[in-house]
Amino acid sequence: MVNGDGAHERTEEAESKQDGNSETDGGEESNEQEVIVIQDTGFTVKIQAPGTEPFDLQVSPQEMVQEIHQVLMDREDTCHRTCFSLQLDGNVLDNFAELKSIEGLQEGSLLKVVEEPYTVREARIHVRHIRDLLKSLDPSDAYNGVDCNSLSFLSIFTDGDLGDSGKRKKKGNELEQIDCTPPEHILPGSKDRPLVPLQPHNKDWKPMQCLKVLTMSGWNPPPGNRKMHGDLMYLYMVTVEERHVSITASTRGFYLNQSTTYTFNPKPSNPSFLSHSLVELLSQISPAFKKNFTALQKRRVQRHPFERIATPFQVYSWTAPQVDHAMDCVRAEDAYTSRLGYEEHIPGQTRDWNEELQTTRELPRKNLPERLLRERAIFKVHSDFAAAATRGAMAVIDGNVMAINPGEETRMQMFIWNNIFFSLGFDVRDHYRELGGDAAAHAAPTNDLNGVRAYGAVDVEGLYTLGTVVVDYRGYRVTAQSIIPGILEREQEQSVIYGSIDFGKTVVSHSKYLELLEKTSRPLKVQSHNVLNEKNETVELCSSVECKGIIGNDGRHYILDLLRTFPPDLNFLPVDGEELPLESRRQGFPRQHRHRLACLRQELIEAFVEHRYLLFMKMAALQLMQQKVSRDKNNSNIPGLAQAKELAETLVAEDGSCIDPKSREVVLNACKAVGSISNTSFDIRFNPDIFSPGVRFPDDSADDVQKQKQLLKDAAFFLVSCQIPSLVKDCLDHSALPMDGATLTESLHQRGINVRYLGTVLEFVDKTPAKAQLEHFYRIGIGELITRCAKHIFKTYLQGVELSALSAAVSHFLNCFLSSFPDSVAHLPPDELVSRRKSRKRRNRVPGGGDNTAWASLTPNELWKNIASEAKSYYHFTIECESVDQVVEKYGLQKTTLLREISVKTGIQILIKEYNFDSRHKPAFTEEDILNIFPVVKHVNPKASDAFHFFQSGQAKVQQGFLKEGCELINEALNLFNNVYGAMHVEICACLRLLARLNYIMGDHPEALSNQQKAVLMSERVLGIEHPNTIQEYMHLSLYCFANGQLSTALKLLYRARYLMLLVSGENHPEMALLDSNIGLVLHGVMEYDLSLRFLENALTINTKYHGSRSLKVALSHHLVARVYESKAEFRSALQHEKEGYTIYKNQMGEAHEKTRESSEYLKYLTQQAVALQRTMNEIYKNGSNASITPLKFTAPSMASVLEQLNIINGIIFIPLSQKDLENLKAEVQRRQQLQELGKSEEPTEDRPLELEDKIPID
Length: 1259
Description:
Layout: H1 2-38, E1 43-48, E2 55-59, H2 65-74, E3 84-88, E4 91-92, E5 110-115, H3 120-134, H4 140-144, H5 154-158, H6 162-170, E6 211-216, H7 224-227, E7 231-239, E8 244-250, E9 253-257, H8 278-285, H9 287-302, H10 305-308, E10 319-320, H11 329-336, H12 353-362, H13 368-397, E11 414-417, E12 420-424, H14 437-458, E13 463-464, E14 468-473, E15 476-482, H15 492-495, E16 496-498, H16 511-524, E17 529-532, E18 538-541, E19 548-551, E20 557-560, H17 582-586, H18 602-631, H19 640-652, H20 661-674, H21 702-732, H22 741-750, H23 758-767, H24 775-799, H25 806-818, H26 832-841, H27 860-875, H28 884-891, H29 895-906, E21 908-911, E22 930-933, E23 936-939, H30 945-959, H31 963-981, H32 986-1001, H33 1005-1022, H34 1028-1043, H35 1047-1064, H36 1070-1085, H37 1089-1107, H38 1112-1127, H39 1131-1149, H40 1154-1183, H41 1199-1209, H42 1219-1235, H43 1251-1254
Parallel strand pairs: 1-5, 10-21, 13-20
Antiparallel strand pairs: 1-2, 3-4, 3-5, 6-7, 7-8, 8-9, 11-12, 12-15, 14-15, 14-23, 16-19, 17-18, 19-20, 21-22
Helix pairs in contact: 8-9, 12-13, 13-31, 18-19, 18-20, 23-24, 24-27, 24-29, 25-27, 30-31, 31-32, 32-33, 33-34, 34-35, 35-36, 36-37, 36-41, 37-38, 38-39, 39-40
């Protein structure tokens, strides 16, 4: 028996070892085979456009002909053409054909660009394209949040593109004189938080005017007789030289006609300048246009592509300068068409969103190329749908869409626009009366969206969800959904064949739905269960009762209303007769919540099941051990590992047939103990209907229900007892470092903690012994809690404001919230008095048209009272403050930070200028300071699964030390990400950052620089210019700049990062220590010693505060400060700091450790220097001017030594790859030491590999 066991164990282990790799490797190998399929080798074709030299273009066989069109429309010399065909040997190529399918197209083929006759559609596209070219450097689209444009400022700090300037600057003297002094407000200790530097002035944006006016003429459309002459439309222009011209767009091109503003004369003028492109025409009649247009295009193509590519989802900026409003015919036209921008290209009128969303899901997914195609299609449709839904939701709230039930009162109205269904987040027809009325109706859409996200991620074939987007705009919550075919013609009662439309009073089920939902039950941890219907018959469900199944006219099985996909959260759901564990009751749970829809997050369910699984394994292993010990006393030395392995085997045999009875009993006990739904294997699922008010369960499942109730209590307790403490622990050891509200929320969500627990989390932090080291976390948490309470109040406050008073109301609210001015009075717009008299007569129908002025009576005192009571009732947290100044004083908050948080959360855009919040004589904001109000949008983010697996296995390889393989995998992931998402995406940003880091570690600095530059640009564009992630990207980029010898750029980038950090979270934050150490080191490198000390000493203070005075980080900080003092020849101070560092090393690592030895060497050296200096001084005192002085060695630090310290503090570790590499590394280190023959002034270069065991603090 035992031998058998042993043999079994050995193979097991071998298998598990292989398993560890085989899963990934097997996957990768098959993947790599497939990847090769996609990247068929590219080839080069020649392109000949009219009037230009032929040029070469690199293309790939997968591309469509259309993509070559796009390239030509973007190239500087061909960008003015839109209406052309590509011809190969006189044959026109089909736009939608893939290049590989075209006969005769090969390396070196010549493609001719042939001008085609215009149609009205082509003429419109041409005018729109020319307008886009003229506006290509104008940031106003980014400020207005349209067409997926967003801001980026990196190029201002790097003076254009890093790659080129790096090569240019190298030639001059290495330490060129650079002005290193930062602006006053960036220095440590400065209390000033200006807003204007957030958007530095970009000289590229100085508009080069090419045209004064380009607009549609009032003579459109052409009358019948002119249509028969080929007139398509008329344009009106004013050139920079003030020449007014009328232009005809005809099938042959554009020419001047003889019309004026008031007389119509469509005859061509003489000369008519007939040209195929508008640009050619204008260049002939306006010299200024010709000159400026050329310059503009030069500048446009010089910009980094990432500065101008559209982002997948719109990013809004909460600040903007005053932008002049210029005439723009395309914008004017877009505003009044229901279609979006380029959708005129799409045949048919509006898009059938539901059909598009569902057909992309049905695409095949058997191999990698198919999956990529499918994921790309899904992602594209989702981002288009989100844009259309957002636009529609704004139109609905602004009152520009007619309701489908116009007779009802405004809050009950529903809308259809562009094939999307819109409903408002109010409790219509008392649907949610039992669950919390309007509060429940407000929470339901986001819960539903989470459900859609979860089912979408499981991606079961044959089960369909609706496209869903939730938009918060002007105080209203709008849900936008795609429309199930045929649902509008039928009554809901007839069409629902699964689930319940009245919260469980009547329930129906359907075998096909059960079969489909059964496939989601395991990944989503949903237990199938029986409930009773109104006739007391048992009905089987595999989801919550509200989840409805409807078969559309297209025959697809849809599920909707997924608001209870995840089980209820008992900490916020008091139930009569149910008790929570004592520990929870002590903390005040269960708490009353606004609504009864509070449910646990998916992340929590996953964490809880994981936790239970470990528990299960432990228990079973323990019982098996006991059995073994009692069974064979004579052979008790069998290691526990074997049993655990054997157990793992028994779990696999789910039917439990081949297990010996003893083990079966063990598994049974363990299953019971952890609440598994099966008795023979570990399987935890939740019944989402437990505690739903209308649902009744049959008697025979009473046991099950009891078990499920217990499981829910356990999960709720797990959140409070495990997840919150683990979050706080992660913040203490700095593995979680939130910097602002959004990153704080993210770190809560990652651990499955809902934001409604924020008060509980803060109380827990308050009771933690190490509270001082969590000050940053507590401060950000309080700020988040306050701005969220303010947001809740602002929501209802805005609902009562009519459109004409919007900016007055928003500025008044911000004054009450942030200004120290005690009696802030709202200015009612004067014309309101007129309109109010009129509006009494008619019932206004716009949801946002409340004709009241109650908002004007809000006072700061009242607002802060409301915030405190909201904090108490929603977060169960007490804020004892009556005004903004008390809050700022008590919790160390900053008003600019609060302004940013509230603006981002509510979509306010304010004028960028310096606000005086602290004046007691006048309010900080006037209505002119409120520029816009944007929607806040929640939507599904479809994932690129294959790319993500590559990325993860790349990361794993890197962590095991296989840098080269890791690098290849991550490059592969990058290709796949680009394939699915296009060029811009958060995940691509992470990919580029990791690649840059690997390039850097492997010594390829220019490549690191190029990848990191992309990462910074992308982070600015996709996340926002002051997002914490962007700040980090700036820091990485500055390190690579320094390594590339671009010192002044490195400093500018660090100063930018510091400014953003001060704005977003203030100086008091552990990350600031890292930033300041970086700045201090670079300044040390350029010999700005005094400045360097200010930053390094600040870093030392912050490190001491957040890591405790005994930490290795602090020792390193002391050492860095000592080096600067040494360079200044202030040896006494240097000795003092190095001694502190030495003590820490000695206590933490012991005398013999290499760090301790280095530190003691350095101390000896400093002492010698100090003695030598003293001798020299004495000599001078004694003998006066004729003393013989031995020259002292004062050395500027070498760049290599500064870089090395930068690498250490930024946690960059050079991992040895193999014995051979180790030897190379050693040789390299020795070479460096010889290079650095600068006495012992430099810290001895350590053998890098040792750092891993050293536990040198790594961020």
